[in-house]
Amino acid sequence: MRLTDDEQAMLDGRDGPAVQRAMDLLLRYGRALGAERLVETNNVVASISATTPFMRDYARQRGGMDGVFSEFSLDSDDVVPIPRVRAFTTHVQLGFDPGNAALMGVDEQTVRFYQQGEAYITGLGVQATNTCTPYQVGNIPTRGEHCAWMESSAVIYCNSVIGARTNTEGRESVGAAMLTGRIPYWGYHLDENRRGTHHIQLAVPVESTADWGLLGYWIGEQVQDRVPVVEGIGKLPNLARLKHFGASASSSGGVEMYHLVGVTPEAPSVAQAFGGNYPVAQLRYGERERRDAWEKLNHTGRDTQVDYVMLGCPHYTIEQIWEAARLLEGRKVHADCELWIFTPRAIKSLADRNGYTRIIEDAGGHLLTDSCSAMSRAAPKGTRVVALDSAKQAHYLPAILGVQAWFGDLAECIDAACTGRWNGGLS
Ligand code: F3S
């Protein structure tokens, strides 16, 4: 790989051993990918902190959190002192909400280790946003900006809706990126890989958030890790719908970028979305395809008695919390059911101030931050049947927790929380 003088100096140890190891890691990674060079980045979404007992024991034996960073982010056998980050970095979600640790079944010792981890990351200059939706809370790159992001639902949003450029990075590459301000120049950093491959024509209206989740789920299965171009969009989707669509497509397939003709920034027209590519397939999304996606997402649902309703995957926007609070106001969560809603901590503080948290709590629900049930592997004790408004969560949770899942829209989920019964269906 070709290096600039600055990159060579980092590799030669000018900025200390941690930066040297970070540069070495990026070179090994870049060579394996066939990248010819690195690209500058000042926008990283990373996981550095740790919440598991395994990491806690590791930190105790190997020099605290610098030991954890050296091993798990820099692939270094030696413990090296970790300097403050060079690139602007925000933290992704974690294993639990420290404000609701007991509710999520997390012990005191783990909470203390978590607090140590949070003090460590903020000490390095990392923003403790703790969310899978960094673009909601202060990390909004500009169109064309080169980024190094983790978390599939955030990556697809970054590429497709914002028009910034990232691949789906891992803990190691983002650890190296935040210390060097570099990431290999390959994949979705390059124009040619951002062009559409599959043409999808909508033959039914796609309007509600659940509709967008179903469409994303079907498209992901069809195109896998390629780049769909969707034509025929009627009503303009809002942030929440695009968030659900991308999360869904990246779960059923490995989609990292899509184009919505007339909506997303690199698709003002079908021709521009394909950028000269000839579509490898022409697909139609109609009633049958929509039903097919719904049936797949609901294939584990058998019992209509619901124990748990989880909302906020990807983390809820303030608009979604507002909607949920309006549907819950004056009602009570059923005695045999639990309602947990997940959002970034910055949005929770807004919900607190606007009175939505109080409405949710008065109804018997909980507004949580930092994590989700799939990430934390936590659900209310004894949960057998879950209701969800997220295709991504419906895709993963039955496998992770061995539960039955129902997928539907927000109103159906709130109704399930208040009646303890699933009455949803495909409208
Ligand atoms: Fe976020 Fe958890 Fe969903 S981390 S995208 S809420 S699986």
Automatic annotation (TrEMBL):
Transmembrane segments: none annotated. InterPro entries: Acnase/IPM_dHydase_lsu_aba_1/3, Aconitase_4Fe-4S_dom, PMDh-L-like_dom. It holds the Pfam family AcnX. Gene3D superfamilies: Aconitase, domain 3 (3.30.499.10). Residues 1-415 form the Phosphomevalonate dehydratase large subunit-like domain. The keyword Lyase applies. It comes from the Bacteria. Keywords: Iron, Lyase. PANTHER family: DUF521 DOMAIN PROTEIN (AFU_ORTHOLOGUE AFUA_6G00490). This is Phosphomevalonate dehydratase large subunit-like domain-containing protein. It comes from Hydrogenophaga electricum.
